[in-house]
Amino acid sequence: MEREERPLILLCNDDGIGAVGLKALAESLSALGEVVVVAPDRERSAAGHSLTLSRPLRASHLSDGWYSVDGTPTDCITLAVMGLLPRRPQLVAAGINHGSKLDDDVSYSGTVSSAIEATLQGIPAFAMSIAGNGEFNFQGAASFARRLAAEILRRGLPRDTLLNVNVPNLPPEAIQGVAITRQGRRVYSETVVRKLDPRGKAYYWIGGADPTWERLGDTDYEAVSNGWISLTPLHLDLTNHRVIDELK
Hints:
The protein is an alpha/beta fold. The protein has helices spanning 20-29, 73-84, 110-120, 139-155, 220-225, 244-247; strands at residues 8-12, 34-40, 59-63, 66-69, 91-98, 125-131, 161-168, 178-180, 186-187, 192-196, 202-206, 212-213, 229-235.
């Protein structure tokens, strides 16, 4: 009698192959299936949904089930599904990201974009991040990732939908529970800092100010701020359907 094949679970992130959160996620999900990690060889935060088209990509086999790629998170998913993996994964899990991916930041996040790329390829996916600063506690996020992954493997996800999860940086016993939320809105201000080099020429840093958020109710930011795990369903269709008739 043939043994039933275990589900293949693909992991990625934008913090790089050596990130502690990635290792915590791999350890947590290993009980559910065969875990393969294909992640950038260095930090690629804020890479968004970018693909490398101007040069060839190189993948390095580091150990059993672990590969690093000298490209973006989206490159990693594309290369894994279309070239590296022996079969199609049943699930893609991205993270655990070192820092939150809330509100409009999902547009910039390489971690979220790797889940988007998987969804575009018809593979159920979720992205998971720790919301907070300082020393990260990955226990609560890793535990919830295992619960969520098991449910997705059992039930699947709606078409063209991925889940963006943000977990408070708290011990597991201090987390209030899980809230189904909507994507919040960030308020942008003084995000570019101008400085001068020793030769008097200007250079710029993007992201110089702490962000603030609109308090709209039931958002990812508000849930995490109150100690809840935020679970936000994101949809690939960016069409503003309410405006179609007006434009016509």
